[in-house]
Amino acid sequence: MSSAPPPGPEGETLPSAEPTGEDVLQSVVERLMEDEALTADLVDAAARQLLDWGIAQTERILRETGPASEESRARLAELRGQMREIARRVGQLPPEEQPGALQAALENRSQSAVRSPQSTVRSPQSLKNHEGQEGGSHSDR
Q: Is 96 strand, coil or helix?
């Protein structure tokens, strides 16, 4: 008889043998896609943006840390928390504003991550203020 695999950072079950990068990536992506609470307050376009960004970040983390390291588990758990926070803040906005606000939040998060891995997510109001200071929306590029 085999014993149960060890739990992951949020109690989820991870593969028991040395997982490959593809195994871990598939497992994490499945959990993100199945987590309805993550995108429940977002319109479809914004939810898709958030999931695509999360998957890209997952791939980057796994490339940088390896699939079965403690660092990868910690960073993936932090990523999921960041995604929840972004979704919570953007989900408070009217539906028509969500895709643009989400894009701004993700761009801000990506730029901040380059400068500082411990950056924070901006509130929807500060996102609106920031967009206005830059002189236009992201859609007119």
A: helix
